Structure formats: structure tokens, C-alpha cells
Amino acid sequence: MQNANQGEAANLDGSRLTVAIVQARFNADITGKLAEACLAELLALGVPPDSIRHVTVPGALEIPVALQALADTDEFDALIALGCIVRGETYHFELVANESGAGVTRVSLDTSLPVANAILTVENMDQAWSRAEDKGRDAARVAVEMANLLDSLT
Fold this sequence. Notes:
With 154 residues, the protein is α/β, with parallel strands linked by helices. It contains 4 helices and 4 strands. The protein has helices spanning 28-44, 63-72, 92-111, 125-153, and strands spanning 19-24, 52-57, 78-86, 115-122. It has a 4-stranded parallel sheet, sandwiched between helices. Helix 3 links the parallel strand 3 and strand 4. Helix 2 runs parallel beside helix 3. The two termini are 17 Å apart.
């Protein structure tokens, strides 16, 4: 069986795509940096500004339900999840990291809509700051590439 994308460069043309971003407000400085980098990259990839919807939710656990509501509109080619979970001294970190990640994956699999997961899970704020810009850009690229790939497979 031949790989549908074998030997081909990633299709990063966002000019015909509509993308939604769900950003957690918890750790807002970090998630703001994620969003800034993500939005800039979406625009650089040609996604029209009026084809980007950006919503915020309280924290990482609320991201999946907002993604699901956006997916249910059938208006978007891809979704992006932006958040930041910093390890603390309790089990809460694992709970939030595991459940938000599982929820993001479930939305993508249940709706066959690509969801780029840029919910940082870090040990401390230094790690978060060092990853925020790159992860925001990466999320935009993943969303555009996967939207184009899934379109080519259907």
C-alpha cells in the first residue's frame, strides 16, 4: 500500500482554510504568547484573517468542550488548542494534563477534524517560556498541513 503523502512536501497553503483557535486564559502570559505566534504563522501561511476565529476559555480542562462546539458548526477545516499546564506539588497537574489531552484527541477522532494540540505541559515557567513561541507556530503549521492532508484523502 502506498502512503498518500509519501515523498511529497507538506501542503502548508492556508489560503482556502477556515481555522478556529481555543485558548485557555489560565497562565495567560504564556497562552497569549502561544496565540500571538500561532496567529502570526496562520497569516504567514495564507489563512485569511477573516477565516480565523479565536475564542478563550478559563483553563485547559475547558478547551475540549469549546473545540467540540466549534467542530459541531461544520464551519472549520482545522482547530487549534492552546494552553499551559505547569506541574505543581499535587496530582492536579496529571489530572489536567491527561484529561485535557484525551479530550482534545477525542474531539479530533469523533469529528474527523484535525486538532493541533499546543497545550504545553511543563515543569516550570522557564520551560513554558522557552517553548511558547515555537509551539504556537508549530500548532498553526500542523493545523494547516492536516486540514490539507485530510481534504486530499476524501
